[in-house]
Amino acid sequence: MSPVHATAVALCCADGWRAALLRGPSGAGKSDVALRLMGQGWRLVGDDYVHVFASADGLYAAPAERIAGRIEARGLGIVTARHLPVARVWLIVDCVQEGVERHPEEDHDTVGGAVVPRLTLDIRPASATAIIARAIRRL
Prior knowledge:
The chain is mainly beta. The chain is 14% helix and 50% strand. It contains 2 helices and 10 strands. A hairpin with a 2-residue loop joins strand 1 and strand 2.
């Protein structure tokens, strides 16, 4: 397993848990958007650093053991949260704080040999969580 500077959250869908791997530099808002998603029923996999590994059927994320079940809430500190020990990554979200293309081409990234759909998203607007949910459900 390789550690990745990212946050992972998962949504329970008809076929099981589907995780989104939220990537971006420190301070990009990964934990913030994860907390907003968790407020809408998503489950934390891991915050700040997650371990990723490829399997025959895709990419998986697991929390770093020492910080499992914890997430940073800026202004409040580190808080505990229900979490999943592992989840399949269905979507990579590159978190930015700038405008993005209105109608981008489909994009993918290869991580550990697994090809995963990728979305570049300005996570500041309130609609960011709805966009991530819609994207992960349509895969």
